[in-house]
Amino acid sequence: MSDSLLVFGSRPVFMHAHPDDESISTGGTIALLARRGAQVTILTGTRGERGEVVPGDLHELEGTAALGPHRVGELASALRELGAPAHAFLGTAPARARDRAEREYSDSGMRWGADGFAEAAEDASPTSLSLAALDEVVDDVLAAATAGRPTAIVSYDALGGYGHPDHVRMHAAGVEAARRLGVAFFAIVEPRVAGTDDDHDDELIEVDLLRFDGLAAKTRAMAAHRTQLTVENGSFVLSGGQRHPIGAVERFRRLF
User: Fold this and answer.
1) Signal peptide position in this chain (predicted)?
2) Model confidence, pTM
3) Residue 194's pLDDT band (boundaries 50, 70, 90)?
């Protein structure tokens, strides 16, 4: 295992808000860790039922009750491409505190703010992840993580990468869970947001997917999320037409 991957240990937990986040932001790292025998766990907060759908044959799913279940299927396909890591949705076993009935955290939705960052939608459901009590979310993370004796937790930075309220909630829950477990917390450096990796470069961990042959698996996993993005010639296009290069280097910053 390369030095950059060793920092996560043999049993890292990756926490993401919606299906597709795991592949876009950390897919290559997950695939490389799994290939080298690490026991990777992915926890997903919601089914992403409020996501916008790219134009094409699946666009009719947008805004319907069928989108969430469809995205669950896309996630299952993506995880197979990433080496079939262990996975759970928060709120359902094994990612549910034993003293609570199972539940689904719903996608909070978002809108774009004047500063170019995402912000909370005005019509977020009371069942949404961003409005859930932090202790409840943390307890669900701990329920899933404790049995596997995690070596690290990986999730978003305090801004949730680009501001999505569900990302922010996963960050807060991940930080608290890592503190209670006494393990390291690594924040994803979001490549689509300018300036997020300008400071504290001595704390930056870089995973070079080309050097360690992880880019192909990441690309296949991203392509599985057909409702959310389209893979084209080394780039991916989102529902609003935004085009970004598929990250050949994934970056993280250890917060503690």
Assistant:
1) none
2) 0.94
3) low
Task: Tell me the one-letter amino acid at 172.
Answer: A
What span, in angstroms and rounded, lies between the C-alpha atoms of 50 and 107?
Answer: 6
**Side chain identity at 27, as an amino acid letter?**
G
- Spatial contact of 90 and 140, defined as CB atoms under 8 Å apart: yes
Section 235-244 average pLDDT: 94
In the chain, where are the structural domains located? 3-254
CB-CB contact of 18 with 70 (8 Å): no
Tell me the residue type at 228: Q
pLDDT for the residue 1: 47
pLDDT in tens, 9-55: 999 999 999 999 999 999 999 999 999 999 999 999 999 999 999 99
22: three-class secondary structure by DSSP: helix
Residues 6+ apart with CB under 8 A from 160: 17, 118, 166, 167, 168, 169, 170, 171
> Which tokens belong to 48?
């992403």
- Domain 3-254 superfamily per CATH: LmbE-like (3.40.50.10320)
